[in-house]
Amino acid sequence: MKSSTQGTSALPSGLGVFTTLPDIFFIPELVFGGLVWILVASTKVLLENPQGWVMFVSVFCFVFTFLWFLLFMIGVNQSSPAWASVDVAYHGVAALFYLSASVAQSFATIALQDDSFNFKSYQEDIAAVVFSYIATLLYVIHVMFSAFRWKAS
């Protein structure tokens, strides 16, 4: 496995994923997305609460980012120049999903603010909001640098 770009694609493979922008964002996206998933899963969820969407987004993005990362690591992305545009599309969708999930989590947290009997869940919700917005920022930065790379190729 080569660790730099090769042939028809400007996308890295192998260990090159750890040294190129925007691909160095894979690991922080997985870390913060996983934290959102864990925090939302551990809180009290009310029936009227939009945290189901937050849970879907965090699990979906975690799984697909991990699979995308593995595809880059094994070099599947070297087979066609179209992978650069798919990279932009995926991270764009993930950024929009995470932005909507962050807003939904913020709304749920504000709604639970008066729920004084479960302060621990409220603190976990606040942490989930913060990590969700960090994950959103990471995906936005990733899609921007992916778009720059796509346009340059």
| Quaternary structure | single chain
H-E order: HHHH
Derived structural class? mainly alpha
**Uncertain parts:** 1-8
Q: Percent of residues in beta strands?
A: under 5%
Could you tell me the number of beta strands?
0
> Average pLDDT across residues?
87
Number of helices: 4
Choose one word for the global shape: elongated
**N-C termini distance:** 22 Å
Taking all Cα atoms into account, the compactness measure Rg is: 17 Å
Largest sheet: none
Percentage of residues in helical conformation: 55-70%
Any descriptors?
153 residues; disordered N terminus; 4 helices; single chain; mainly alpha
Tell me what the structure shows:
This protein is mainly α and 153 residues long. Helix content is 68%, strand content 0%. The longest helix is centred in the last third of the chain and has 34 residues.
Explain the layout of strands and helices.
Layout: H1 26-42, H2 51-74, H3 83-111, H4 119-152
Helix pairs in contact: 1-2, 1-4, 2-3, 3-4
